[in-house]
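Ticket #4471: structure output looks truncated?

Reporter: J.K.
Steps to reproduce: submitted the chain below (514 residues) through the standard prediction queue, then opened the result file.
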Amino acid sequence: MSFVSAGAITAGRPAAGERPQAAALARLPTWWPLAALTLLAAALRLSTLGLQSFWYDEAFTPVHVLHASLASTLSSVAHSENTPPLWYLLAWADSRVLGDGEVALRLPSALAGIALVPVAWEIGRELAGRRVALASAALIAVNPLFVWYSQEARSYELFALTSALAMLCFVRAERTAPGDPACARRMAAFAAAGALALLTHYFAVFLLAPMALWLLRPRGRRAAALPAIGALALVGLALVPLIAAQGGHGTQWIGRWPLAERIEAIPQYFLTGASGAPLGHGVELLVALPLLVGLLVGAWRLLEAAAAPRRAALLAALPAACGVLIPVILVAFGADYLAPRNLIGAMVPLTVLIAVLMASGAAGRAGALATVVLAIGFLAVSLDVDLSPRLQRGDWRSLARAIPRGGVSRAVTTVELGTAPLQYYIAGLHELHPHTSVLLSEIDETGYSPLRASAGAPPAAGFTLLSRSDVNGLILYRFVSPRPRAVTEEQLRRHVITLERPAVLVPAGASVIP
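Returned output as attached by the reporter:
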C-alpha cells in the first residue's frame, strides 16, 4: 500500500509525460483507498468466520445466556455476565433470525470490525488529513488484534467500534466553534455514541471521561457541552444497578494472572494479537521494529512541526493514555479488572496516534515507509492465524466430534474452560452434582497440557484405556468398562487430566445415584 496525497488522486486528464501508473490512479475516484481497505477488512474477517470453534466465553453465551425470551436473556446477563447488555441484545436478535452457530453469533462482531475501518479513516481525516486517514484505516484493517475480536462472539469488537464512534464525535465537537449552530448537535452526537460505548463495555468510561473533560474546558463551549455530558452521565448511573447485580463474578481469573505478565501482554496483544504469544518475542520484535523507528522519527519531527499536527497527536493520545493507564492505576486500589482484551477500546486512539506520528507530512517518507512495513507485518500475522492451529482457539468442535454419540452411561471429564464448549457441541450435557454417583460404561477424559502425572491411568476400577487422541493440542482419553459401574463424582473430578479446576459432565438421562 502507498500513501498518496489528495492532489495526486483527482479526476481529470494526466499531464504530459506522466507515468502510466499515476495516470491510472488519477482516473480512480478519491474514495478508492477507503473502499479497498474496507473490502480487505471484510475479506479477512468474513472468509474465515467459522474456521475456529467456539472457546469457553463464546460458547457460554448460547449455552447459558441466550434464551427464547428476551426477558430471560436479560436476566441471565444480570446474573451470569460482567458486561453491559447491548451486545447481548444484538446476539439475541441475531440468534432469533440466523440461529446460534459460530458464523451467526460472530457476525455482529465481524460487521463491527468492518465498520471500524471507515470510522478510523474519518477520525484520522478529521485530525490530520488524508494521509493519516489512510494509515489509520490500513492499520485497523489488518491488525491481528482487531481481526481476532472481529471473529469472536463477544462484545469486544463492538466496544472498539462504539468507542471509535465516540472519539470521532469528540474530535468533530472539539473542532466546532462555540457559537456555531452545529456545536449542540455534535455534542449530542458525542453523548449518543458515548452511551452506546457504555452500554457495550464498562471500560468505555476510561475513554469517555477525559474526552468529556476536554470538551468542558473552554467556557464558551460549556453551555452546549453540559447537557450532552449530563445525559451521558445519566446513562452511566443507570448502569449502576446492573453492575451491582453482576457483582464482578467470573473475573477471579484476572487476579490469578500475575500483573507483570498482564502488563507485558498489552503491547503483545497490539503487535501480534490475542493469540500471538506462541510466535515468541522474536516475531514481536520484527513487527515492533518499524513501529519504533516510525514513532521515533515522527515524534522528533513533530516537535518542529506546526501546532496542528501536535494538537492532533494530543487529541489521539488523551483517550489512548487514559484508557490504558487508569485501569492499571486502579489495580493499586483493589479494583483489578485489568485484562488486555478489556483495553481494545483504547487501541483505536492508539492506532490513530501512531498514524499521526508516522504518516503525517512531518514524518516524511521514512514514517510512511515504516507504516507500510508495519501494516505488512500485521497482515502476515493475521494470515498466519488462519493457517496455524497453534495460534487459533482450542478446537473443542473437533474434540467433541471425536467423542461417540449415543448412550447415557457415559461421563465426560474436563476443566472449567472446556465445560461450555463441550455442552455447546454435545447437546444434553450438564454438570454432575457433587456428592453423587453415576452408572458408567465409558469415561471420556478431555483436557490439554500440562497434564497430570495420572493421565492415561484408569480413573476407576474396572475401566481400561480404549484410545488416546490429540486434536490440535486438546487431549482425549477414552476408558470403557464391559458393564456399567457406579463411579462417584469425586473420583471423576479428582482424575481430570489437566492441572486446572475440574468439571464432570453427564448426558441427560444418566443414571445418577444420590
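Triage note (M.O.): checked the attachment and the full C-alpha cell line is present. DSSP finds 22 helices and seven strands in the chain.
Status: closed, working as intended.
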